[in-house]
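Record minuted for everyone:
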Amino acid sequence: MTLAVIYAFASAGFLGAGVVLAQLGLRTVEPLSGAAISVPTFTILFLLLSPLILQGEPVVWSGLPIFIAIGLFFPASLTLLTFASNRALGPVITSTLGNLAPLFAVAMAVILLHEPLHSPQLLGLVVAVAGAAIITVTRPRDLGHWRSWALLLPLAGALIRGVIPPIVKLGLAVWPSPLWACLVGYVTSSLMLLTVQRIRKGSFVVDAPRAGLFWFALTGISNGLSALTLFAAVRNGPITLVAPLAAIYPLVTVALSAVMLRHVAITARIVAGTALTVLGVVLVLIG
């Protein structure tokens, strides 16, 4: 259980950093092209390291279709939704609305996996969602004009982010290797994104400024490590514990936004909402 907590917090840290790094990349590259840079970057890195890190990890072919199916949505669709939301709403709102993912994850875990949900955990979820709601109604001054439909982008991302862990849990019951699960999913997503890039732009290679390539490559590595540690957390602990802890990533986003994106206004309401999110996570831990 301790490993699950450590991996969940690590996943939150990498994901929170990835949201801010993506904002830097979006200054010069559109969301789809950014996804076609970030996801394949981590995939290539993973493939290069696979002879070393996959030693002793047996292949279970019956689990392959599950991990391929996961790769059709995660990280490909989620990355696109996150980048588009990042451009439309900014990193803070994107991260905090993404904090609704534990609701979907826990509901799926209780229904599909029959995991128990204790009262403190349920209270923690409610408090975390309340924190997300408080931040949502606050709009940083620099975001300009955005329409309410744009909120559907991070909400759809939260749905995918919430549904994936229980499905990964089912896949890991067949093929108990977070490393293989992550690699297969990323290869599938990379093929999808590069195909779309080829259809739209006529080339698999993204034509982007060096700065955009650099920031999205870093984003891909950060997001990839987040996915890998999330899968490891799911392998070592229940979804009802892992999902709320991984949702602490807006804290990292808020902190890094204040340092790296000085134009993003961190208001008192955003800080209060983030504090509620932390309180919710604490309640989940003691549950």
Q: What stands out?
A: The chain has 13 helices and no strands. Residues 138-145 have pLDDT under 50 and may be disordered.
